[in-house]
Amino acid sequence: MQVFINTDRHIERTADLVERVEAIAQKELKHQAQQLTRVEYHLSDINSETRAGATDKRCLVEGRVAGLKPVTAEHHSEDIQQAILEATRQLVRGLEKVISKSQNHRA
Q1: What is the CATH number of the domain that holds 10?
Q2: Which superkingdom is the protein from (predicted)?
Q3: C-alpha span between 33 and 81 (Å, rounded)
Q4: CA dist., res. 44 & res. 97, Å (int)
C-alpha cells in the first residue's frame, strides 16, 4: 500500500506530519492493506486567511482497491491530526462495505 500526502499552501508538509499520517494509515488500514494499492491524503486549511472558524482543517482521503472504483472519505476539524484520523476511520468503513460487496458479488 502506497501512501501519498498532498497539502495546500496553508499546511506545511513536514517530516513529522508525513510520519503521523503514515502511522495513522498503517494502524487504521491494517485489515485492508492487502487489498489497497494506494491511499492518497489531501490536507487543507479551508478558512486560512479569508474566514475564521473552529473546524477549518480538512482531510480528504481516497483509497484505491485493485479492480474497484476509489473510495473517499472527508472530515473537518479544528486539528489536522484529528481530521486525518476521523477521515481514515470513515474510509475504513467505506472500504469494508465495498470490499464485502465485491467479494459477495464474486461468490
Answers
A1: 3.30.160.100
A2: Bacteria
A3: 21
A4: 27
Q: Is residue 105 part of a domain?
A: no
- The mean pLDDT of 77-91, rounded to a whole number, is 96
CA distance 7 to 95: 23
Give the Cβ contact number of residue 90 at 10 Å.
17
Grid cell 495513522 in the structure block, residue = 24
In a domain, 91, yes or no: no
All three cell numbers of 20? 503521523
The model's pTM is 0.89
| Residues 14, 35: Cα–Cα separation, whole Å | 28
As a whole number of angstroms, the distance between CA 58 and CA 102 comes to 29
HEC secondary structure over 19-76: HHHHHHHHHHCCCCCCCEEEEEEEEEECCCCCCCCCCCEEEEEEEEECCCCCEEEEEE
pLDDT at 74: 97
Strand order in the sheet with 71-77: 2-7, 36-45, 57-65, 71-77
Binned at pLDDT 50, 70 and 90, residue 106 comes out as low
